[in-house]
Every structure is written in structure tokens, then in C-alpha cells.
Amino acid sequence: MQLTFLGATNTVTGSKFLLSLNNKKILVDCGLFQGLKELRLRNWVKFPVDPRSIDAVVLTHAHIDHSGYLPVLMKNGFRGKVYCSPATRDLCAVLLPDSGYLQEEEAKNANKYGYSKHQPAVPLYTREDAERTLTLFHPLEFRKKHRLEEETFISLVPAGHILGASFVEIKHDGETLLFSGDLGRPHDLVMHPPAIMQQADYLVLESTYGNRLHPKIDPLIELAEVISHTAERGGTIVIPAFAVGRAQHMLYLLYLLKIAKRIPNVPIYLDSPMAKDATDIFLKYTALHRLDAALSKKVCEVAKYINSKEESQLLDRDTSPKVIISASGMLEGGRVLHHIKTFGPDERSMIVFTGYQAAGTRGADVIHGKRVLKVFGETIEIKAEVRVLSNMSAHADYEEILDWLRHFNHHPRKVFITHGEPDAALSLQQKIEEQFQWTCVVPDYMHTETL
User: Are residue 385 and residue 401 in the same domain, yes or no?
Assistant: First the structure.
């Protein structure tokens, strides 16, 4: 067996791990690179392996940094099955076409405003490409073994994080490989904790927060203060949020604050058609999270859903206090950019970040103090207050990762630390080696390991 790291090495994006065994090639995750230009350029280069030679793709979950390269893979000849959980399949049916649409819009805006070096700018893939990709999906139920060939089985195990998120367990000739995907948190308000795993011969482990602890702060207290303070001075609260996972989490927190009368009675808007579709899926899969059907329905009714562009534009003309939740969560595209363009220069308003901001994204720039952004070819000055609610993350911090690892009664021969910026990955490697004396490696891009 050979394992090649085609992404998520020294970065939190572009997750792709190629497992070659006998005459089979299995790609675990197929994500887009995001953030830094040098990473994004990898999306455009020839794929290191002929896509036609890949027999199957297995997705840990639906987020674009784990699934968003699939349409490119299919465009270039991949025709195998895409295995994932049913909820991941449903979420990909929302996320992938939207990603294609955003690629088209970005190319159109680049041509309109002349900010691309390419003439004309073209999308990486289109909505239509993404929709065709969905025909390859083959959902698998959690904890059921699926035979790929005589001595190779895959199974999916709940990982927390978001709806449908899975650990991918691959057994081949008596050897077990475990891919963590994104590891959820044990005490998340919405999602169930990640399943306890007890053994693996090889472990590919994420390290997004490998050098950080989430603060022991109640996000309800933080969010109540943010909304009350901003509304009091007549401002608008803009919350960039990942349409899948974070948007639904925010609705739940806002619902709790509303019923407890801990925030002013300001209107709440969910301005993301994709988030609306994802919320419908949230209602469909109540068994996968902590909120029952009745409560889920109430939570989803706390906001007014904005569908059309015209409705979205009206929000920017409304000067009264309000809360706007909108994608994308890292300010890399979507309607939230229009709201940032309007309310970013307003010192009464507030921009509230609730999730990880990858290096090279506008979101990372803003939280690190940059106050001048390029949006749609224009320079925008950020005068609004900026807050980060750092206890909102759906990723385990290093203490929670170590607690999860303590349940292993058959320790891995080798742990591969992935999906983290360099400092985070190296820090987690050091902690695991010190506490467990396990062999850990932080692989480089394109590194191949013989197992």
C-alpha cells in the first residue's frame, strides 16, 4: 500500500489523500485549495494522477475544502463512484452547484471589472459541471462495511463536526487506515460528539487547532453582548458564516437568546439561498444532531430567509439595526461581500467571525488587522468593529484531539498530521509524541509513504 498526500499538507484546504493498493486507487476527499494564491493555483494545474485511473473517491464530509474539486476530477475523466454518508450527499447537492455558480460569477466579475490577468477569465468549473458530478454519488450508511474488492472494505463512522461528517476506515489485507476528516467537538451545542475509535494501524489526523485551545467562554454571553452593543449604537451585525454547519449553529444560539429575551428585538436575516437549502437538510436529519424535530423547526423560524438578489440589496439600503448571517464564512465570495461593502465602512456596525479563517483569505486579513479590502475590484475601508467568537469552532482543539486519541487501545504505527497550518501541525505532532510516544509525521505536498 502507498499513501500520497495531494492536499491538506501545511494548510487547512485542498484535502486529498490517494491510497494505492494492489491495482486499485482510492482518493479520500477531493477538496479545493483556498486562501493563498500559491495554493489556489494548484486547482488549475494538471492533476498529479490520471483521474481515469482512480477507482473511487470517499468523502469525509461536504465542505468545499473536502469535496469541491470533484467536478474538475470528473471533467478530466473520473468515472468511479463517490462514497459518502447520505447527509453528505444531500449537502454536496447544495454546495457543489453553488461552488460552480460562484466560479462562474467570479469569472464574470473579473471580466466586467478587468481585474484578471487572463483574457477572458474562465471558471474552474460551472454549475452544470457540478450537477453532473452528483450522478456519481453512492451513499453508504454509517458503520456498515462496504466491500471494494476481495480484501478491501470501507466504512464510515460519525465524526461530529457537521451533518454527515465521517471518519473513513479502510481495511485492506488485515491492515486498518483511519482518516479523521474534520474532528468534531465533544460538547458541541448542536452536533453529537465524534465516535470513539479504539484502533488503527495508520491514522491521518487533522490539526486545524493543533496549537490552540478554545477559550472557556459561553458563546451565548459573547453573542448577546455583541448584538446588544451594536444595536444600541444603531449598527448592523454582519456574520460571515459557512452555509453548512455554522449558519444553523448561529440560528440556534440566536433562538436561545431570543426566547430568553437577552437581546433586543432586532430582525435576523439568513441571506444565503445555499444556507436555506442546508437548513432544510438539517431538518431532515434530526437524528444526526442534538435538536429534535420540533425544536429544529422553531430554531429555523428565528430568521427571515432572503432568497432573491433584490431582497438582499434591500438589506443594504436598510439603515436600522439588524443581524445578517451570510456566506461565505471566509469572505471569499457570496452575498456577504455585498454586505461587507455596505456595512464595513460603517463604524456603528460590527463584523463577527465565528469560524476558522484560512491564511490568504479576506477573513484572515480582517481578523489580523487589515482594514482595506478589495471587493469586486473596489477598495473598501473597514471601519466597523471586528470581533471573533473563537469558541464557536466545529473543530476539536488540541486538548480535545488528545482526549479522543486516549481511547485508542491499539496505537497506530504511524500518525500523519494533516489539515493544519505549519505551526499547528508541528505543535500537535510534538504533543502526541510527548504524551503517547507514537511515531508522527507532518507530510509535505506530494509526499508518498509506503505502508
Answer: no
